[in-house]
Amino acid sequence: GEDVEQSLFLSVREGDSSVINCTYTDSSSTYLYWYKQEPGAGLQLLTYIFSNMDMKQDQRLTVLLNKKDKHLSLRIADTQTGDSAIYFCAEERRGSGYSTLTFGKGTMLLVSP
Amino acid sequence: GAVVSQHPSRVICKSGTSVKIECRSLDFQATTMFWYRQFPKQSLMLMATSNEGSKATYEQGVEKDKFLINHASLTLSTLTVASAHPEDSSFYICSARGETGHNSPLHFGNGTRLTVT
Q1: pLDDT digits (tens, 9 = 90+) for A57-66
Q2: Across the interface, do A42 and B34 touch by the CB < 8 Å criterion?
Q3: Is B67:B81 a contact under the CB 8 Å cutoff?
Q4: Nearest Cβ partner for A103 among B6, B43, B111
Q5: What is the mean pLDDT of chain B?
Q6: Residues of chain A contacting residue B93, judged by C-beta atoms under 8 Å apart
Q7: How much is the pLDDT for A25?
């Protein structure tokens, strides 16, 4: 199959760290993405990681990739109320002349003061 | 960074009318753009891949006569929902790769919420 799975909901307190997990099935995935969607808005690219990397850090965001387990996580340090949104994990496979992007169903992150 | 602009952000129309949605790459050329549809509380579903200067490639189950795609220039793709009906009400999002080449991520527009009454 080509499923990307995420937990549907995560609730944290402001200042704590948030960890959003994602599993994918296609070992030939080349790029893995994390997008943020606020209510009524489009998708905002947060970060992405190439499949030959294990970790990528960008300010408060840390992405960990475990290729053996096909597991991707997004850690948000010092979570703020403005981080409340839906976070989508997506895997992309590219071949000669084609590219397919498969999204998970999204994880709703709720940050309480 | 790469910016994708989508217009309009919201449209309400009567059943039977056609609606055109524009997707522009503002600071880069995009030979390929993608159109997605998102149902409430669900993930994105790829509808079609828009190729500059050639016909769009539609995903299985997407009616090409209902969802007309035109990619006439390297910075503009349009999606026209022909003779819209209430079941076409949805959130439509376009995306484009940030730059030519294989090592750039997909950037998305802010989406268009279509409501057909």
Answers
A1: 999 999 999 9
A2: no
A3: yes
A4: B43
A5: 88
A6: 42-43
A7: 84
